[in-house]
Amino acid sequence: MANVLRNSAKFGFSGVLSQLSIHSRHGRECVSPCFSLQQRNNSTSPKIKVDLDSSTGVAVLRMQSPPVNSLSLDFLTEFCINLEKLEMDRSCRGLIITSTLSKVFSAGLDIMEMYGKSPERCGEFWKAVQEMWLKLYGSNMATIAAINGSSPAGGCLMSIGCDYRIMVDNPRYSIGLNETQLGIVAPFWFKDTLVNTVGNRAAELSLELGLLYSAPDALKIGLVDQLVPEDQVLSTAQDTMSKWLAIPDHARQIDQCVYIIYNTSPLPLDHARQMDQCVISVCIYYI
Amino acid sequence: MANVLRNSAKFGFSGVLSQLSIHSRHGRECVSPCFSLQQRNNSTSPKIKVDLDSSTGVAVLRMQSPPVNSLSLDFLTEFCINLEKLEMDRSCRGLIITSTLSKVFSAGLDIMEMYGKSPERCGEFWKAVQEMWLKLYGSNMATIAAINGSSPAGGCLMSIGCDYRIMVDNPRYSIGLNETQLGIVAPFWFKDTLVNTVGNRAAELSLELGLLYSAPDALKIGLVDQLVPEDQVLSTAQDTMSKWLAIPDHARQIDQCVYIIYNTSPLPLDHARQMDQCVISVCIYYI
Amino acid sequence: MANVLRNSAKFGFSGVLSQLSIHSRHGRECVSPCFSLQQRNNSTSPKIKVDLDSSTGVAVLRMQSPPVNSLSLDFLTEFCINLEKLEMDRSCRGLIITSTLSKVFSAGLDIMEMYGKSPERCGEFWKAVQEMWLKLYGSNMATIAAINGSSPAGGCLMSIGCDYRIMVDNPRYSIGLNETQLGIVAPFWFKDTLVNTVGNRAAELSLELGLLYSAPDALKIGLVDQLVPEDQVLSTAQDTMSKWLAIPDHARQIDQCVYIIYNTSPLPLDHARQMDQCVISVCIYYI
To answer: What's a Pfam family in this record (chains A, B, C) (predicted)?
Structure first.
């Protein structure tokens, strides 16, 4: 795995992050015309391709950054911009994330971004990682990871940031937060998300030993929800999405908010406050 | 399920709630003679029937409000008054809750109470729902739900508010917090109780998709503890109760308190403070 | 079980605890020469025997206090002193805890310490119990319990304070926090540790009913991680330890810290602050 990460993409800093207003989770009402326009064009880009089916309201986001969809600052920035566009597009209710590469979903954080960089640059990189997590985990869309290959470390974080995980039934594909094996500490919001997914003890063993799980083992501990043959992963994701979209958006979204606020202690304040407000309006009768 | 709920009882406001002093969880010492007297008579009422076996100290509370034991304000008020009487009766140590109706334990909250009502009335209704939960979940009695029929939404909340759940082994009976399917958001104390019962991930999927589980599936995720044939549900509950009552009351009760305080974040302050006091007296040696 | 406890060791107060500076979790840097010296000698003592293999960095701590390794104040004091020595010894990275007695790991707290004693003495005893738990649960070493016999109550607490549990595959050996059966309330940090190990619902049933689990049942609910034949428990512990020590110490230790701070609410303040500091230094990029 370490080798995979070391061989991964080494893209430089593109400066695109500056286009991203970090705390701009406006309601879905205030759609910027410019963003909408780009969205309607189903804008493509070197590292990520988004297709929105306006008849179903479901977007498929394909990661296509060879060799292993490393999460470089460049990649993350593009990912977040696309996510934000979809989030603000009223016609989009569901998001499926998958990979165009053979055998890999995402190899996780680009280790070169943490090697020999200035503290400022490191900070910028980690901010982008956290932003990806916040946008996914706090998304108003129903989100499904169609995991069609290995998904270690940051790739696993991206997966568990989604509402549901469908993985290819192939024991050679693995998934897990294996940071500890590389001597890196998984931040506590990685841990929170993993605990919320597989429970405390499995998460504890998993993080302290940096375990990677084969697809069948991942299903056993609940790290993924379902295994399917390789050629059915996307169609199953589409079928599952239609079940999620049968639930009234508002009820599902607020249920999610309640989860995130109470189950993840150390959320950045601005974000937590935004979510608190949406919950407070629901709870007015209950206290 | 929506149909079941829509066809459910539509009883008006009876005003009985005003007889209930909401924050009156006195210790079991200060039994009012009047309440005790009524208790000895095993008072019956249109919607709920209570039989206390003074030789075993076990009361059976039967819900008998056709067609589906809907939790109207009327029903909840009667339920809470009966619970409070038993709680204050020193001779009662255990409570079994069941239904006299065929095929249904309780269909949950009476949806008519939330439709076209004033905010004040809605507030009164939700206060009664919360009061039911507080009284059950915080009860000093050992409590067992003998679930002899379907138990969606509020019926499920009532069940998971008990210490133990025995359900009829019939796949046609279902249980779950399916509020989201109706576009209603389950309050966070519903969520807390469900998470405490089945763990976080199962609760998350369950709430966001509003899932109803057949009895066998409910056993699989731990939403109920045991399945038995229909004609054995009450006798099994009695047998199980004798195991619970073999434990010294004081130790079991304080263990429960510790649970409720630390596992359910948003308890109303008065209630939390009362329980804190009982814990503080235990913890005096440990800090 | 009550009988076992009543027949257990009745050692008086030895005054050794005063040699223990309760809040002295100095970093591993400031090793006192005196402690180091004793350590190098692999000091033995009546109740506990420690062997440190300097080639592997793994210490084996053997409890050898007949008849049942009761946790008296004496025993706990000796246990904590040994733990502290190992903790401060840079050459020791892993600790295996086991028993030299036949059929019993540890019968738990010495009940005579809680019977007819002054509040001051009780306080001293409970402080020592908590100190054992803090030292184990917060240890920088990888810790494995090689459970070669029954392990009720405090013996179970000692086991779940370790990172990993290997038990003899013998249904006659049992483990569990059965305090409630004796009318004693398990303190909330017992509960926290159990919930972290087996999840909330299993812990709740377990504590409220004071359940003891046979080895196979303990494996089923996750109270132990692995069962092996009696003659392989120590060798398996050694093999497992080498896997834990393959992980960079620093990453594993901080992962543990993150766990303890966020998952155990009521830690004594001094201890929590020390751990907070180590986490804050890691999290500097993430907030």
So the answer is: ECH_1
- Check: CB of residue C54 under 8 Å from CB of residue C89: no
Does B208 participate in catalysis according to the annotation?
no
DSSP string computed for C215-244: HHHHHHHTSSSEEE-GGGHHHHHHHHHHHH
* B223 within 8 A of B198, measured Cβ to Cβ: yes
Which chains sit next to B, with 3 or more Cβ pairs under 8 A?
A, C
Is B108 annotated as catalytic?
A: no
Instruction: Kindly provide the residue ranges of all beta strands, DSSP E only, lying in A58-140, ordered along the sequence.
Output: 58-63, 70-71, 94-99, 108-109
Q: Which of A256, A25, A278, A268 is nearest to A137 (CA)?
A: A256
Chains that touch C (3 or more CB pairs under 8 A): A, B
Triad C175, C177, C179: Cα angle to 5°:
130
Query: Which residues are B226's β-sheet partners?
Result: B166
Extract the tokens encoding C113.
């310490």
Instruction: Output the CA torsion A131→A132→A137→A142 (10° steps).
Output: 130
Residue C222 touches partner A, C-beta closer than 8 Å:
yes
Give helix then strand counts, H and E, for chain A. Answer: 11, 11
Residue B185 has its nearest CB partner, among A196, A198, A255, at A255
Q: Which residues of B touch C209 (CB under 8 A)?
A: 243-244, 247, 252
Q: Is C155 left (phi over 0), alpha (psi -120 to 50) or beta?
A: alpha
C278: contact with A, CB 8 A cutoff:
no
How high is the pLDDT of residue B189? 85
How high is the pLDDT of residue C248?
85
Report the complex ipTM.
0.76
The single residue of B83, B109, B211, B227 carrying the catalytic annotation is B109
For chain A, say whether C262 makes contact (Cβ under 8 Å): yes
C-alpha to C-alpha distance for A79 and C201, rounded to whole angstroms: 39
Task: List CB contacts (< 8 A) between A180 and chain C.
Answer: 247-248, 251-252, 255
3-state secondary structure of C260: helix
Check if A7 contacts C (Cβ < 8 Å).
no
Query: What tens digit of pLDDT does each residue of B232-262 get?
Result: 999 999 999 999 999 888 777 776 665 554 4
C-beta atoms of A180 and C247 within 8 A: yes
Residue that has been written with the tokens 């739900």 in this structure: B145
Put simply, the answer to whether C252 touches A180 (Cβ < 8 Å) is yes
Has B178 been annotated as catalytic?
Answer: yes
pLDDT tens digits for chain C (287 residues)? 222 222 222 222 222 222 323 233 333 332 233 333 333 334 445 899 999 999 999 999 999 999 999 999 999 999 999 999 999 999 999 999 999 999 999 999 998 888 888 888 888 998 999 999 999 998 999 999 999 999 999 999 999 999 999 999 999 999 999 988 888 888 888 988 999 999 999 999 999 999 999 999 999 999 999 999 999 999 999 999 999 999 888 777 776 665 554 444 333 333 333 333 333 333 333 32
CA–CA separation, A231 and A234 (whole Å) = 8
What residues of A act catalytically? Answer: 109, 154, 178-179
Q: Is the minimum CB–CB distance between B35 and chain C shorter than 8 Å?
A: no
Query: Could you give the 3-state DSSP secondary structure of residue A107?
Result: coil
Is residue B216 less than 8 Å (CB to CB) from chain A? no
Residue type, C93: R
